[in-house]
Structure prediction request, 145 residues.
Amino acid sequence: MFNSACIFCGIILGKRPSNIIIEDNKAIAFLDAFPLAVGHTLVIPKKHFSKIQDMSMDYESAVFHLVHRLVGPIEKAARVDSSTIAIHNGKEAGQEIDHVHVHIVPRTIHDGAGPIHSMFMKRPVISSADLNQMANALREKLQPC
Prediction:
């Protein structure tokens, strides 16, 4: 349920300092200790999951319920009209802490961050046929609900 080496599990257990905003029995939200903007908040499950696909539906629901509740108040408190909601799902995607976490980052037009497409310097050129082939492959791999 918890990973003793995980910083976020330490926060959940009250063993690490944090600025908790809100929590329920399955999820917790706190200010990022190394914020990208004033009000930068993290929402995490209260059970150790490394990646989104490892989470059970009840923890997914709890995390995204808190994200939904927090976005408006964070934007108001930070005095902005927009925010970026991001998840780095695995080390190669930039996940620095091996515990699912959702970033809510208040944004301004002058913050220099840009859209997600600005993160990728080497973007593939993909044909319509290749897009169709990928869509078909994904549909085949989906598990029934």
